[in-house]
Amino acid sequence: MLNDLGNLTTTTALALNNLGAPLSIITGRAPFELNGVLKRLQTDAPQIAFHGALIYAPRTGKKGLLGAWPLEALAMMA
User: Fold this and answer.
1) Average pLDDT per 10 consecutive residues for the chain, totaling 78 residues
2) How many CA atoms lie within 13 A of 56 on its CB side?
3) pTM of the entire predicted model
């Protein structure tokens, strides 16, 4: 979606904005790293960051975890 310089081109932004469907970006990055891209996209859909560990709504700032496990439970899985 991004070019070699890590930017969203005008052509790509126009194409994504004209999809006619909700657009969610799913990334391993932190939410603040998507701010530049999201400013150019016309979407109110939830976005997913940290490899799916966080779902957030950029326009409202609402955030939520998909789940939380205590460290003891994670240690038992290893």
Assistant:
1) 89 94 91 90 89 84 67 65
2) 19
3) 0.69
